[in-house]
Fold this protein.
Amino acid sequence: MICRDSNSKYGQHYDHTQQKGILAELKAQQKATELGFIVSRPISDAMYDYIFDSGDALYKVQVKYCDSKTLYDGAVTLDLRKKNLYGERELRYKTGDIDVIILYIPEIDILCWVPFSVLAGKTSFAIRYFSSAPEYKAAATTTNIVEDYIWK
């Protein structure tokens, strides 16, 4: 059933969160294809969205639209937790579930390739994309910078 929404450009209403996820996935698929990866999608539920085949290696890839602001302008954060059946927050990914998370940061239209080894055991991942503001000087050693993860 298609829900009609007079406010929607095309007369269809979609979950905004789902739209953002689809956009991030399309950007990641396009980039992977441009770089020569074979892009595969699992046919059943999996912890990852895609398998990217470089010819030399297979990567279990999770794609995330990342627009959650941090306390500072010019940075975003990704929550790496989920709620369990009891409503408690727990880590979303375990070693072996995924190899990489690709972050799409819409504010700067950039994809970042973040190896799971950088994220293992963390509850969140913050990344700066604008670092000239004075408040970043103090946090410079503890915050990730986008230049280190841009997927080229």
Notes: The mean pLDDT is 84. Strands lie at 38-40, 50-53, 58-65, 75-79, 81-83, 89-91, 100-105, 110-115, 124-128, 144-145. The longest helix spans residues 16-34.
